């Protein structure tokens, strides 16, 4: 972070995009929204939860310094990838499209964005 911060400050449109997952949402885990109590997912979920709090902390730090650096975490949805044996119902390209729109939009005030369906609808989601 220390190496990128000066470069981001110099940028005309400084932005940081982290690819997260709703599986890392503490709010959704508390109500067992996903119903995934499988041990093999625990480390993945924990890593995404850590990424979410890191995104929040960096965003708050840079906002407090008025750097104008935008930080967002995007949940591209359950996409078919090698990680899940291509079992996701959504094409990976659709998830990538959500990330692209999130990072290129001028309305960059939502800190966590989810795109659950093949439709490109970005919505605020709970960390």
Pick out its properties.
globular; 127 residues; Rossmann fold; SDR_enzymes; NADP; NAD(P)-bd_dom_sf; alpha/beta; two-stranded parallel sheet; Ketoreductase (KR) domain-containing protein; 39% helix; 16% strand; 4 helices
Overall description:
The chain has 127 residues and is an alpha/beta fold. The protein has a single domain (4-124), classed as 3-Layer(aba) Sandwich (Rossmann fold), CATH 3.40.50.720. Helix content is 39%, strand content 16%. The strands form 2 sheets. A 4-stranded mixed sheet has the order 1-2-5-6, sandwiched between helices. A hairpin with an 8-residue loop joins strand 5 and strand 6 (123-124). The mean pLDDT is 82. InterPro entries: NAD(P)-bd_dom_sf, Sc_DH/Rdtase_CS, SDR_enzymes, SDR_fam. Keywords: NADP.
Overall pLDDT confidence: 82
| Biggest beta sheet summary | 4 strands, mixed
CATH superfamily: NAD(P)-binding Rossmann-like Domain
Helix content: 25-40%
Radius of gyration, Cα only, in angstroms? Answer: 15 Å
Q: Structural class of the secondary elements?
A: alpha/beta
What is the overall silhouette? globular
Strand content of the residues, in percent? 15-25%
Contiguous uncertain segments of 5+ residues:
none
> Kindly, what is the distance between the CA atoms of the first and last residues, rounded to a whole number of angstroms?
21 Å
Strand order of the largest sheet: 1-2-5-6
Q: What is the string of helix and strand elements?
A: HEHHEEEHEE
Number of E strands? 6
CATH topology, which one? Rossmann fold
Query: In the CATH hierarchy, what is the class?
Result: Alpha Beta
The name of the CATH architecture is 3-Layer(aba) Sandwich
Give the domain tally.
1
Number of helices: 4
